[in-house]
Amino acid sequence: MEINLISPEQNPPLDRVFVVSIVIRSFKGRKDVEVHLYRPWWDQSEEKKYDWDLFLAQLPGQTGKDMEKSRHVVMESFTALERDIIIGYLKERYSQKLRQINSAPLQFPIPGGLVPLSMMSENENHGRIKFERIPNYTLSFPVHGFYDLSAHAPILAGEEI
I want to staple 18 with a disulfide (CB 3.0 to 4.6 A). Which of 35, 83, 88, 131 is the partner? Predict the structure, then answer.
């Protein structure tokens, strides 16, 4: 399993800046499925403590709703400690099932209007993994993953994964 960690080029303006994704070797009949991990909920007091004008870039014509979505993109991300805890958990529990774990910092300022992973709709190709519902989940915080099966090739009969 390959682990790719990109560090911020400069000190980030807040602690909650890391996005994490995994690549699952075989998932729902598809190979090398990328799953973007995120925090599905958070304490509202944490969201209120930030001066969002410093972190978000509102473009002409964008509304407060657009900016709220971008705030959620930040709130769904992880601190360095949370990222490291998640990576340790994934290495211990899923090392044979994962091809990669990737992490990178968000780039600031965050543009308004981004759609957070928690607001992405589910259908026959797009779905979620709710890790905390899996037996023997040991993390102290919930982690969800969003995937798009249509972006990945199907596993062919007799193909080695």
Answer: 83
Examine the pLDDT at 22 and tell me if it is beyond 80: yes
CA angle 17, 110, 100 (to 5 degrees): 45
Query: Quick one: average pLDDT of 113-132?
Result: 96
Q: What is the pTM of this model?
A: 0.93
Average pLDDT value for residue range 14-41: 96
Span 61-83, pLDDT tens digits: 888 898 999 999 999 999 999 99
Distance separating alpha carbons of residues 77 and 73, to the nearest angstrom: 7
